[in-house]
């Protein structure tokens, strides 16, 4: 009986440690994905391959405009990024580069929400809420809502 109780206590201490390590690895993977696919991919470098790696093909950007909810699927957003990249003749100036500050990442199993700030020229321009799912090939951004910070 004593050995059984010790085994239960031992397992109770080990399980949270393993779960925490997994969550930390998932959080790091999510941060890397957001930086590479969203911030660099869509906002700065406009690397289409990186965008497609990090966004699920069913992704939708939900926008509240004039009291109406509108959707922008990822394929439309990618086309917009291609057009912006084609018009860009010189590298972005420092004040044109978008940076990201991670405010919160909440992970439950294979679902996650990331709250981030996008900054440009030293000012916060958006607060984004990104929804993610973990698929067999890793985390993917599946949805986004945002708040545009007034100038």
Can you tell me about this structure?
By secondary structure, the protein is α+β, with helices and mostly antiparallel strands. The protein has a single domain, classed as Nuclear Transport Factor 2, Chain: A, CATH 3.10.450.50. Helices cover 42% and strands 41% of the residues. A six-stranded mixed beta sheet has the order 2-1-6-5-4-3. Strand 5 and strand 6 (138-148) form a beta hairpin.
Keywords summarizing the entry:
alpha+beta; single chain; 151 residues; Nuclear Transport Factor 2, Chain: A
Order of helices and strands: HHEEHEEEE
Give the overall average pLDDT. Answer: 88
Tally of alpha and pi helices: 3
The Cα radius of gyration reads 19 Å
Instruction: Give the number of DSSP strands.
Output: 6
The percent of residues in helical segments reads: 40-55%
Class by SSE composition: alpha+beta
Distance between the termini: 67 Å
Strand order of the largest sheet: 2-1-6-5-4-3
CATH topology: Nuclear Transport Factor 2, Chain: A
Going by CATH, the architecture would be Roll
Ranges where pLDDT stays below 50 over 5 or more residues in a row are: 4-20
How large is the share of residues in beta strands?
35-45%
The general outline is: globular
The largest pleated sheet is described as: 6 strands, mixed
